[in-house]
Please model this.
Amino acid sequence: MISLRRMLLSGFAVIAVLGTVVLLILVGLEYGFFSATPPPLDATLAEIVDHVLIPLLVFIGLTVIGSILVIRAATRRLEHVAALANEASARGEPFRAPLEALPREIHPFAEAVNRLTGRLERHARQQEAFTADAAHELKTPLSVLALELDRLPREDAAPLKAQVHALSELIDQLLLLARSNNPGGQARQSPVDLDALGQRVVADMAPRAIHDGKSLSYENAGAARICGLEEALASALRTLVDNALRETPAGGEVVVRAGPGPQVAVLDGGAGLDAAALERFKARGVRADQGGAGGAGLGLAIADRIAEAHEGELETCRPGETGLRIRFARSLPPQD
Amino acid sequence: MRVLIVEDNERLSALLAEGLARRGFSCDAAGSLAGAADFLAVTEYDVLVLDLGLPDGDGVEWLRSLPADHAPVLVLTARASVGERVTGLDAGADDYMVKPADPDEIAARLRALLRRPGTREPALIEVGALHFDPAGREARYRDAPLRLGRREAALLETLMRRPDAVVPRETIENAIYSWDEEVSSNALEAVASRLRRRLAEAGAGGLVHVVRGVGYYLGEVAE
Model:
């Protein structure tokens, strides 16, 4: 790693060595040390100490101290700006490095970074706008489809309606994902209580689980609050519960456990995915049961991206338990 | 019941009108805000179904401009986020549904909107073949009366008022205990199990489900 301080110190060491040699030669010539009749050695040494070593040490010592102070002041400013950037990121806000707080020499670098983050933000904004338009455009034909299905006999329409519903949820998820990736967008990030989130999702999904002869329950193991887009997080958690319910045989139980700390786990009564299988699902958007009725496949991959947009990671609970969990890197301080 | 559908997609509004007609509503369809205003000028509607993105303006603005005594409005739109729902409801919508919506649910919500004025207590709460009389505190399954204690009756009533939803434990406790009563941690479980027993005796077993960590849920009740 390159350190400014180390570069400076080695520079000064070189200057000290070269300077000493040059001065020694000059002093030697001046006092005729190299002539046929050199002066006595101790007198020469005293001259060298007086006129070379002491001034050189004083000069270099002061310069080193001064330089270190300058570097420290510059580093402090950089650290301050880095802290501002971290705070903005924790609040989910866009960030521009304030040039006035930085030394002029660093401006070209800071400007380049600002341009880069600006481009990323613009990209995220366009992505959200595009997804929102696409979602809007897709939902109208889907509504037409849903109403057309309504003309069919009820038992024929039911499975098709389920597919329309799944497709519409997928569109919502994509939109939520685009929103989570656009921190400067209209959907502002806010504190999300993982305890409340878990209860809400379990309450939403329990009727279906009960209908399918499975049980769904909730546990709070000391959940924290995080900063994020509640709708997107709820959708990601719903996907995990949905997958877990599918993996669990009738009569089995799925448990949603919030905490400890900034994480939510969904434990299923099935075989559970191991890390390698999970990576495959994340990458390819394959669903755990490889097809079948309802659900449109991309679920886990989108849930993973939503977790990622919240500085979280979707991982397997194996080998301890079977199930999946999302662990977030950052939590908010507890509310008082 | 007369419904005005304001929706610019003609296919969609025709299908919606047809679907609602099958469920006993009579519908007119307007393709724009100006068209809707024309319909409203000559006819009195019981309820409006409003799309938000219309060719001649935004439905939210139009909602704000409606007179205070307008018929109830159900917004039916593709705008799905919480913020958009809040904006719609704040602008004066009485209910908000996101496309694609199930016609059964649209019809149910329209009926609920039409019931809302006066919001008088229904004389009898019915869920399938379960009946509860809130005034007399009596419950019946099919024709058999259920002999319930005060708390069991309150639990059943709370669950029956929100069928299809998990009712949070706290809501139930607030409904069945007065504020100064000491509630032990498993008291609600005991009430629920007595209620289950009474229901099973009447032939309605397996209805009250616990959703551990959240609350209770009344399962599907046969007609």
